Amino acid sequence: MADVTIIEGGRVIDPASGTDGVRTVVLKDGLVAEVSERVERPSGATVVDARGRWVTPGFIDLHVHLREPGQEYKETVASGARAAVAGGFTSVVCMPNTKPVNDTLAVTELILARAAAAGLARVYPCGCISKGSAGEELAEYGELKAGGCVALSDDGKPVSSPALMRRALEYARAFGLPLTVHEEDLSLVGKGVMHEGAASTRLGLKGIPGQAEDVMVLRDIALVELTGGRLHISHLSSAGAVRAVREAKRRGLPVTAEVTPHHLALTDEDVAASGYSTDFKMSPPLRSAADVAACREALADGTIDCIATDHAPHSAVEKAVEFDAAMNGITGLETAFAVCLGLVRGGALTERRLVEALTASPARAFGLPGGTLARGAPADVAVLDPAAVWTFDAAATFSKSANSPWRGTQLTGRCTHTFVGGRLVHQVGGETR
Amino acid sequence: MIGRQRHCIALEDFSRDELELVLDLAVSMKEVLRRPIKKVPSLRGKSVVNLFFEASTRTRSSFEIAAKILSADALNWTSASSSVSKGETLIDTARNLEAMRPDVLVIRHSASGAPRLVADHVGCAVVSAGDGAHEHPSQGLLDCFTVRERLGTLEGKTLAIVGDVSHSRVARSDLHGFTKLGARVRMCGPPTMMPAGLAQLGCTVHTDLREAVEGADAVVMLRIQHERIGDPLIPNTREYSRLWGLNSKKAAEWLKPGALVLHPGPINRGVELSPEVADGPFSVILDQVQNGVAVRMAILYLLAGGDPAEARA
Ligand SMILES: [Zn+2]
Ligand SMILES: [Zn+2]
Asked: Per the CB 3.0–4.6 Å rule, which of A107, A240, A267, A364 could disulfide with A102?
């Protein structure tokens, strides 16, 4: 008997193949063998009872920080991959701002070796746009691509030089690699630590206007027009950036975008309500209610293609300090589904679009395998209980860090089983690996 | 306790009753200040630690005198550099000082929110002596006290606050204090010094000085930080003082009779205020200094466990 798993009785939501209904999913030899209403149970198959649950393609996160090499006290490839599968993510693209940065084959290979040893989520490295992420010279895209990088980014930093950005977009065309970009004009950011508005004024914290993002998005869209390069906007957060991407898509330019669960769920007023909690400090910052509304609408209508977590683990030492001094970023892999499901309950998003934004859309944006349960696709599957009530607990997180605004909060919706290549790698209540 | 407040961190958190509790008690405290022997045993055996990460001789001395008049032991702990740069966290520093068992920790810090962070990690009462561009609650209270003392009430009065509102913790505390006590507030300054969403905080926003001060019952002139020049918020102090500074000619023509001019000090003479106005009939700047001690006595007394009824008797 081959390695067969049958997931029975669940509601299969697979936007890529247009499926939404109760089906049985058969996983065999690492691939999706069948999705149908009636299936004979082969003897010896592992059977998962998914009644009352959703069965979806495993989620794909185009933007995570795994911190290895260099800051293994915050996260390792293995711990990050463990957190990923706990959240239903079967593939993650890891940003290159490690120490050293991923601008050489050696670092790419190290990440892939660690990921293979962990044997959990599929980890796709992202290489640097510029050497050392210094924003001056192009990195070796040919070598990075050959090593296994699927995209390029200087994330953590914007590419400030328009001339370098132009050459990067042009040069990357030869390798078919998208550039995923952190969009901020640093002179407009200044010493800002949160979104600029009434909340920052009340708190006396230096503000960052949404326009710091807008002007870079507009610049880079202009450069896409010049070069024909592939541009993916990382963690889009402002209404102005939404308008710019909508217009670029209308004109048929090769531009895609992602938004994080926190930029869809929280505003700058939540920073104020938290009493300077550094778990609400991230880059780009939590924006105004109007920006959040624009992002939700854009995600619903497809202007923003996908949801990415920007999972950014930091130790307590780097967060238990003055707001001005705290590191940017929050963890997100384990809370993403529940937070986004809150948007569905609030009417901002349909169930189908939510699943699409976590599966088919990111796969398409970076040309990654997976993102569908079509026959013959990789057997990467998430089984989700949309009614499960649980508390996101710092002690129980699989990440090495617990910097999250949802720490200690009760959430609804949880991944109960995760399969990667047909193998059960996560099960609620059972330590699996 | 000040009403429900265990700490004195932001006037934004205060109710009108809580503000009035401090101001009423400060009236009795000012009485003590005017006695020939300025010492009462109210806080004997209590200790107050002044933890200043930013130099401020005036505010620190004011808290220190307030503590001593009430017979509390006052310890000054000054740090030239921020604790973060020494690799010691603010929380560590506060916990170390707390091990000396103070009743009140007075903290001044350049980062907004620092006193809140400390308050979340120590057991004693925390008083903010100014944090970043957030609040300076004792200054806000002393400004409320000074206006109330001269005008009888803030209810229905119009107050103008002029200068670099963006970077001013005094402006924020004054705004919350004044509006909670029933006054209308006009904020005025160069547009580059008016922070985003200011009108949403319950004031009107002006760029024309005359429009802001005409008919106002009191005007708070904020101190212009010289390091802001070249920031690039204003071209130079000359243009600033011409457009947003108060000299005796403007004061005579625009201010209504009996209007008050306040300034948190120290004054840049000739920039925000001409010397004739700073020392002239409208000025209540020296009252502010004395009232500052009375207000801080009231704050320390309440937070160190004093009973307001007893202090008034
Ligand atoms: Zn980024
Ligand atoms: Zn990132």
From this structure: A107
From chain B, the residues in CB contact with A317 under 8 A are 89
Cα of A80 from ligand 2 centre, angstroms:
14
- Amino acid in the structure at residue B26: A
Q: How far is CA A229 from the centre of its chain?
A: 22
- Dihedral sign from CA coordinates of A189, A191, A194, A200: negative
Min CA distance, B197 vs chain A (Å)?
4
Q: Is B81 on the interface with A (CB under 8 A)?
A: no
Beta-carbon contacts of residue A191 (< 8 Å; ≥ 6 apart): A206, A324
Tell me the pLDDT band of A194, cut-offs 50, 70 and 90.
Answer: very high
Nearest CA to CA, how far is A276 from chain B (Å)?
Answer: 6
pLDDT of amino acid A431: 45
* Mean pLDDT to the nearest integer, B246-270: 96
| Number of A–B residue contacts, CB under 8 Å | 75
**Chain A residue with minimal CA distance to B89?**
A321
Of B84, B90, B113, the CB nearest to A203: B113
> Which residues fall inside 5 Å of ion ligand 2, going by CB?
A 155, 310
Alpha helices of A56-150 — where are they, by DSSP H? 77-86, 105-118, 141-147
Place of tokens 């009779």: B257
State the complex-level ipTM: 0.92
With tokens 């509390």, the residue in question is B72
Terminal CA-to-CA distance of chain A, rounded, Å? Answer: 22
Residue A200 forms contact with B (CB below 8 Å): yes
Whose tokens are 């509102």? That residue is B165
Give the dihedral sign, CA B6/B7/B12/B16.
positive
CB A55 within 8 A of CB A11: yes
Residue A60 has phi, psi (to 5 degrees) of -120, 120
Query: What is the token pair recorded at B204?
Result: 């009107």
The helix/strand/coil state of A359 is coil
C-alpha to C-alpha distance for A425 and A433, rounded to whole angstroms = 5
Question: Are the CB atoms for A314 and A333 separated by under 8 Å?
Answer: no
Indicate the residue type of B131. Answer: D
Catalytic residues of A: 310
Beta partners for residue B172, in sequence order = none
- Ligand 2 centre from A21 Cα, in Å? 35
**Alpha helix stretches (DSSP H) within A254-350:** 261-265, 268-273, 289-301, 316-319, 336-345
SS3 A138: strand
Average pLDDT, chain A: 96
Q: How far apart are the first and last CA of chain B?
A: 18
Q: Tell me how far apart the alpha carbons of residues A237 and B128 are, in angstroms, rounded to a whole number.
A: 34
Q: How far is CA B65 from CA A178, B48, B57, B211, in A?
A: 65, 11, 12, 39
Minimal C-alpha gap between A272 and chain B (Å): 10
Q: Give the model's pLDDT for residue B86.
A: 55
Tokens of B277: 């106005």
Of residues A190, A125, A177, the one with CA closest to residue A324:
A190
Q: Enumerate the residues of chain A whose CB falls inside 8 A of the CB of residue B81.
A: none
Contact between chains at B197 and A205 (C-beta distance less than 8 A): no
pTM: 0.94
